[in-house]
Design goal:
The structure holds two protein chains of two kinds. Chain A is of the alpha/beta class. Chain A is built from 19 helices and eleven strands. Chain A has two domains: 174 residues, D-Maltodextrin-Binding Protein, domain 2, CATH 3.40.190.10; 201 residues, Periplasmic binding protein-like II (D-Maltodextrin-Binding Protein, domain 2), CATH 3.40.190. Helices cover 46% and strands 14% of the residues of chain A. In chain A, strands 1, 2, 3, 6, 7, 8, 9, 10 and 11 form a nine-stranded mixed β-sheet that branches. A two-stranded antiparallel ribbon of chain A has the order 4-5. In chain A, helix 1 links the parallel strand 1 and strand 2. In chain A, helix 8 crosses helix 10 and helix 18 runs antiparallel to helix 19. The two termini of chain A are 41 Å apart. The mean pLDDT of chain A is 93. By secondary structure, chain B is mainly α. Chain B has a single domain, classed as MetI-like (MetI-like fold). In chain B, strands 1-2 form a two-stranded antiparallel sheet. The mean pLDDT of chain B is 91. Classes of the chains: A alpha/beta, B mainly alpha. The interface between A and B is medium-sized, with 33 and 32 residues.
Amino acid sequence: MRVATTYAGAEPLAKPFTKVLNEFQRDYPNIKLIHEATPGFDHQTKIKLDALSDRLPDVFTFWRLDPSYGLDQIAEAGRLADLTAWSQNDPFFKGLFDDSSWDTATRKGVVYGIPAQMFYIWLLVNRKILDRAKVPVPTTWDELVAAGPRLRAAGEIPWSINNGNDSMAARVYNYVMSRCLGNERAVRIHGGLEPADSPDMIRASTLVQQLLGGNIPSDGITLSSDLVYAKYTNTEKAAFLIDASFRLFEIDPKIAGDLQVLNFPAIPDGVQHDFRVERDLTSLWYASSKQYADAARRPYIQEFIRRMTNRQTARYFTETAKVQMPQLDLEVDPAAVGQLSVETLKAALAAPGNKWVPKLMKPAQRTRYEPLMSEFIEGKYTPQEYVAKFAEIMRS
Amino acid sequence: MGSLKFRWEVVLYIIPALLLYGIFFVLPFAQTIFFSFTSWNFFGHPAFVGLANYARLFTDGVYMAGLYRIGLWAVLAIVFKVGIALVLASLLRGKLRGRGFFETAFFIPVVISSAAISLLFTLLYDKDAGLINEVLRGVGLGKLATSWLSNSHTALFAVIAVPIWHTIGYFFVILLAAMHGVSPDLYDAAKIDGARGFRLFRSITVPSIMPALQVCIVLAISGALKSFDYVFVMTRGGPGTATQVPATWMYQTIFGSLEFGYGTAIATSIFLIGLCATLATRKVMAPSSY
């Protein structure tokens, strides 16, 4: 049975996953498990190539069914197993995940995935750096914007973020868009379902540039996320940090005490006033339709997925790898996951979730959109120019 | 003296190699050309679109800018890669103490993988901890220190410099071998006529090694056209699209955008441009030209 995941190398889930995998192998010696581990986004390429040659692994993890990841097209081609009947009839799933998770796992009424891992976006500030620069912890949008120039004037770097493809800067962009336009409208605009060239988009883009322009490291546009943590976050050279929960482990525990959770403030005249956090599933378990159709294989595929998604494994993954699992009523040991994880998760679950803004964007649009957004944040375009170019991409 | 006669039995001996060549080159190549005339997202049946993908190349700003970049890359590769290799080979042509050491030293980078070299230079180019900026600051040129790979004005040149440094040794070896094949009598005769130094180099060495030079120039051009690994590892086409070249754009188009048809049209265009450049180089550097 072929199992493909991103749990390779230094990935935090690599060791705990391998342990659970080995337990499955031990319990089912008649099955030979082959783990195909491909790190990061290369896994997307691998799965697409496997799908192209009609040899998808029996079971694999992948991102959501959002169009920008391309898995929806694999589902359209009938290569993903329909898990609807199983997910609805198996008592194992009763009360395990919330409706939002099942909604993400479903496309056009068909359940294709079983929730594997969730994420939320956190915003932190290093109080030590603010104290050094004599800048108060911002609680409003205006204070957050004003903090940037004040930190720069004091010789500090305001934001510890990168600005390439799928970057931390994009997370700030998504927040501003959702706050200004409302999350649903922001998602529709960035999915080409609503015209992009509007005064509201220009205003929201202006606010992004006000917040980040000149306030991120000069090499941020080409730094990978782990280098941002190594160079700026863990060396306490930059004040504000924003990223997804699956990167919390990158923060050096020694500086955790200096960090404070911030709620992303509401933007004056913005549509979204209540506190919201971007959160959703980040990965799900999928199965090959060809392998799942094999009556002899199906029970093992199902049992494997049960092993990977039961509360015991979820707790083990959370406490060992410091990742967030989507199972309801999951009791984890706070000491094992760390105070930052507890606090940021508490903040995330206290609020309704925003969906990822480029959720509905097509892959071809996303390939052009991300470099454009990077260049805009770097200051290459005015907000008007950015929106005009963005609208052109959305029309294509 | 016998004469060469074609014997059909010979074909039997080359069939295995031809089969491999056919399966792993000719067939994929033909498939690439076929798909370049279609619109296909990996699934379902490819839809024939004629020359639409090729027409799109001319309106694709990222692709056209990428063409300019690889043109610049090719020129810089010829000037610096071939040029420096030529000078080094000329310096080491004669009996020089420690020649073996220098030959080895120049060639060592060639055996290291391009991905490893690219990762190494990513660190060297780092704005804060990179050796290049440290040296600049150390010699009082700190104003020149910058984020080499993040600055859109320097990123492309920073990337191009890497394969030039990486493969100079390869061209050096080719040119040195060619120079060793030049008869010393030619130099003796030229010296009798009063030629010295650069005149010897220009009038004897360069014309004598012209076939090898031609090979090096063609390799430099094709290397520039195919460049993928250095860009992919160091910048992935960024900052923005400042270092995006057709090969990396092709990769993103196929595996990111799932536009297999258009991506293969980019691939075919790279092949056609390379073919034209090679033929043009051979024509310009044909013996009657100099």
